[in-house]
């Protein structure tokens, strides 16, 4: 509950409403800032088997953590729980698990982990979240930091051949690119979709497509966003691009062009989608169900569209001609484990 007694949900919704008439969308960026580190300075030391990542496939912020966890081979160190694609005003729920209960945390709702640590937690019950298994309490939901810590604090548990997604010599550039991508693209689509006035929408729409044009120019001569290998910056952009045609183009009115009508970005997105660890984490069915059902003030009928046809994600992309080495001196991750596999028919790969 919020301080005024109203419930608050994912992406800052109040009472299940995502659009505030007359206003621009303002994402609440106040997350639980605790970190899990080698030295345990926040009280949370890196320890295999102690923590559980809760990451709904539908959510782009959570999708980042699933990609990075798999690329780095952290499956044995950090278990994962996956809520279903829809949630109510209270919380994400574990409705995909037998009995509707997470088998490790033994809770039906993610809010139970938040309240185990903060009984009066005042903000949205968001994914991704990392939960301390022994206490059942949430440790952090700071999506911006979680993947960076996977890359820098959990190195002792990285698989052999894990790529360096956050190389020290490129961190300043990665951070600079990622900040603009977040502000104008990752969050930019929400600024369009949750705009409460024509002016707010027009401003967000212009900013979004200016940023996509900037990315098109940048990626027309280099295979990846920073350097010649996949980095954290690519992970952050990819999860938005994967949702663009199925959701953001229509549902959020980001409709100057479809992704599939922007040749450079479309080829770049297909290149990543066809790279192990990226496309095999994408569940297009859950993605569409989440947005079209949960955002009922935008889509009152809650009808989920059948399209678009997504088989084109597997067509040749030609980006190899730009050079680059996807994993640098590392190797691709092995195939996803059974628990991490996207359901049959939910992805062109399955």
From TrEMBL:
<feature type="region of interest" description="Disordered">
    <location>
        <begin position="1"/>
        <end position="20"/>
    </location>
</feature>
<feature type="domain" description="GST C-terminal">
    <location>
        <begin position="156"/>
        <end position="294"/>
    </location>
</feature>
<protein>
    <submittedName>
        <fullName>Glutathione S-transferase</fullName>
    </submittedName>
</protein>
<dbReference type="InterPro" id="IPR047047">
    <property type="entry name" value="GST_Omega-like_C"/>
</dbReference>
<feature type="region of interest" description="Disordered">
    <location>
        <begin position="314"/>
        <end position="350"/>
    </location>
</feature>
<feature type="compositionally biased region" description="Basic and acidic residues">
    <location>
        <begin position="7"/>
        <end position="20"/>
    </location>
</feature>
<feature type="binding site">
    <location>
        <position position="92"/>
    </location>
    <ligand>
        <name>glutathione</name>
    </ligand>
</feature>
<feature type="active site" description="Nucleophile">
    <location>
        <position position="59"/>
    </location>
</feature>
<keyword id="KW-0808">Transferase</keyword>
<dbReference type="Pfam" id="PF13410">
    <property type="entry name" value="GST_C_2"/>
</dbReference>
<feature type="site" description="Lowers pKa of active site Cys">
    <location>
        <position position="291"/>
    </location>
</feature>
<dbReference type="InterPro" id="IPR004045">
    <property type="entry name" value="Glutathione_S-Trfase_N"/>
</dbReference>
<dbReference type="InterPro" id="IPR010987">
    <property type="entry name" value="Glutathione-S-Trfase_C-like"/>
</dbReference>
<feature type="site" description="Lowers pKa of active site Cys">
    <location>
        <position position="248"/>
    </location>
</feature>
<dbReference type="Pfam" id="PF13409">
    <property type="entry name" value="GST_N_2"/>
</dbReference>
<dbReference type="InterPro" id="IPR036282">
    <property type="entry name" value="Glutathione-S-Trfase_C_sf"/>
</dbReference>
<dbReference type="GO" id="GO:0005737">
    <property type="term" value="C:cytoplasm"/>
</dbReference>
<dbReference type="GO" id="GO:0004364">
    <property type="term" value="F:glutathione transferase activity"/>
</dbReference>
<dbReference type="InterPro" id="IPR016639">
    <property type="entry name" value="GST_Omega/GSH"/>
</dbReference>
<feature type="active site" description="Proton donor/acceptor">
    <location>
        <position position="190"/>
    </location>
</feature>
<dbReference type="InterPro" id="IPR040079">
    <property type="entry name" value="Glutathione_S-Trfase"/>
</dbReference>
<dbReference type="InterPro" id="IPR036249">
    <property type="entry name" value="Thioredoxin-like_sf"/>
</dbReference>
């Amino acid at each position: 509950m919020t301080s005024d007694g109203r419930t608050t949900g994912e992406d800052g919704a109040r009472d299940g409403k995502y659009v505030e008439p007359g206003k621009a969308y303002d994402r609440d960026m106040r997350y639980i800032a605790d970190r899990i580190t080698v030295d345990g300075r926040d009280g949370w030391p890196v320890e295999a088997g102690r923590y559980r990542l809760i990451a709904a496939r539908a959510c782009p912020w959570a999708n980042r953590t699933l990609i990075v966890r798999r690329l780095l081979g952290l499956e044995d160190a950090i278990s994962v729980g996956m809520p279903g694609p829809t949630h109510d005003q209270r919380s994400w729920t574990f409705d995909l698990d037998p009995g509707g209960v997470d088998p490790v945390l033994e809770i039906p709702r993610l809010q139970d982990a938040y309240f185990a640590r903060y009984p009066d937690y005042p903000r949205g019950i968001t994914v991704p979240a990392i939960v301390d298994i022994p206490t059942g309490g949430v440790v952090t939901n700071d999506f911006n930091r979680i993947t960076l810590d996977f890359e820098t604090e959990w190195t002792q548990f990285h698989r052999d051949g894990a790529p360096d997604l956050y190389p020290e010599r490129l961190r300043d550039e990665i951070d600079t690119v990622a900040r603009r991508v977040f502000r104008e693209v990752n969050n930019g689509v929400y600024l369009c979709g949750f705009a409460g006035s024509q002016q707010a929408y027009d401003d967000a729409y212009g900013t979004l497509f200016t940023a996509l044009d900037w990315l098109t120019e940048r990626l027309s001569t280099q295979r990846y966003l920073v350097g010649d290998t996949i980095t954290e910056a690519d992970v952050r952009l990819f999860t938005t691009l994967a949702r663009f045609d199925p959701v953001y183009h229509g549902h959020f009115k980001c409709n100057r062009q479809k992704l599939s009508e922007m040749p450079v970005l479309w080829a770049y997105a297909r290149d990543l989608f066809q790279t192990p660890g990226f496309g095999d984490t994408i569940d297009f069915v859950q993605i569409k169900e989440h947005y079209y059902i949960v955002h009922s003030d935008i889509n009152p009928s809650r009808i989920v569209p059948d399209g678009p046809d997504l088989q084109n994600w597997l067509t040749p992309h030609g980006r190899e001609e730009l050079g680059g080495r996807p994993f640098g001196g590392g190797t691709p991750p092995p195939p996803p484990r059974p628990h991490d596999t996207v359901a049959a028919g939910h992805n062109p790969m399955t």
